[in-house]
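sorry to bug you again but im stuck and you know this stuff better than me. below you get a single protein, a line of residues and a line of whole numbers that encode the local backbone shape. mainly i need to know what kind of three dimensional shape the backbone takes. anything you notice is useful, everything is just below:

***
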Amino acid sequence: MARKHHYAPGEYNALAQLGLSNWQAGDYNGAVDLLEQSLDKIRQAGDVRRELEILNNLGVVSKSKSMFSEAISYYELAQKIARKIGDRSGEATLLNNMGSASLTSGDFVQAGIYSEQAAAMAAEVNEPTLQGMALTNRGEAYRELGQYGLANITATQALMLVRSSGYRRGEAIVLDNIGLIESSLGNFAQALEATQAAVTIAREIGSRSTEAGALIHLGLIQTQTKQFDAAQQALIAAKSIVEELGEELTLMEVQAGLANLMLARGGSDNLEQAYTYLAEMLPLLLGESPHEKPRFLPMWLYLTCILVMRARRDPRAEQLLARADAELRARSSKMTDAALRRGYLNVTEHSAISALAGTLSSQTI
């Protein structure tokens, strides 16, 4: 109808809505095509504020496609507009999105920089929810870098902000992160309390993806504390959700979590079950260079695979170990600050991979 009546705003807004509908349905290429059509019409009309919004949406879709550099490029174009028109709130949102994209791609240093800028700007414009989201990302970046004290302080600040603004999904995400921080510090009672609270909130608000992520972490923590039956229940529940949502890469984490559980239980039958859980992902991990993967994979996943394969005497274990070590070195080499790099390499699973790789090198020599 908009085309029939030559009503440009109606046409580009309808195209934008269709694009978002495609994105929500998982048709990312269709979403990009429609959003780009909308963007072209918007630029012809000179609607710069709407242009900013569509560029941001294109960044969100690119992140969903694991095209992180492309996502950042869209956000940066939108940021230029936000600065030009003096939209500080919009710029804070874009900086937070840049931080989120960097975090998901494994660039934790840059994620921290973007998130810190976003949090400061959100505070200036009095947007506590946005500030809390930015501090959530900042806390996650600290945790991934092994800076657990700073991670805890930042996560506590984020929790206060998201709670004060009633953003319950944000509260679940922060609590999940706090659980991981406490687990890394060996504070398992606090870790279990925070992670179980995250699961409860996610269920109450119907956020299935958030619930699945928290359940995976709950299962990992319960495995560490030898609560094996509870861990299996959490991981199976996560598996059901992830399969329903069709999140293939998250399913790899579930399978690795279940393999880790079976290995911890001990016994030959459990070892065979652990190996079965990993069977589908091993060709992917062994078939290409890890740093060329479309999405950052956690190092604990590599370590679990290596330990299970070694226990089962799979000759490919040393090949995967060499790749995991190379991936770890590639990630740490991007950190120009020596102290940050040392902290990152001292994270438990990272130091374990380095130690195993060192043993492999000495045997080769």
